[in-house]
Amino acid sequence: MPRPAGVAVAVVAGAAVVALVLYAERAGSGLSTFDHVGPVEMAKPVGTVQGPTGPMPHVQINLSVYPDSMAGEHGKGGGAHPSWVSYSATNLWVPAHAVVTFTIKQYDSSTATLDPYFNRVVGTVGGTAYYNGRQAVALPSQSVAHTFTIHGIPQSGQPTVFVSVPLLGVPSNAPTLANGYPAPAVVRFSIVTGGSGDYVFQCFVPCGTGYNGWGGPMESQGYMAGNLVVGKG
Ligand SMILES: [Cu+2]
Question: Distance from the CA of 146 to the center of ligand 1, in angstroms?
Fold first, then answer.
């Protein structure tokens, strides 16, 4: 049954108020909080490892990147946008002053980067990442599917973090797994965290919808954008 126009207008106006309040809170505090309703992916402690200045706690985060939203946090049916490309989790928590090892299973095919800067591995331990077990400092542009790029929030006053890792695309002849996706490219790298802070991570390959591929999932937490919180309870 069609919804009366008045109800639709009220719903849109209500959503705008909620968005404004969230924006005002974020702008007022200078630090974001988890403003996306979704599970928090806590880094898993795995012991101690030698860091740049001595032994440090070692933790792991496992993520996936899917060409749609059918297998991540949106549940069966894929949620509001089943066809949108997505990271499997977009609320990440890692401890301060620790070595964090990320393992990302990347299930999507490649889309070339727009700028060769994003072909490079930046801000990881040793400036490298492992692609299906092979160490590299960069990928050819045409092999990149997405990037995992962590950066700060302007005027936040917290420690600067910039990490960017190109994620390898799966080849067109990759075998299909039981879950319906091609065998993923496995990307592994580590970072060293400093003091506590709130950061954003997102993809810098225009893999979305809307304005030249920069809209839709690219601008939406829960899809190709998320929060990474360092060291707060
Ligand atoms: Cu992307």
Answer: 4
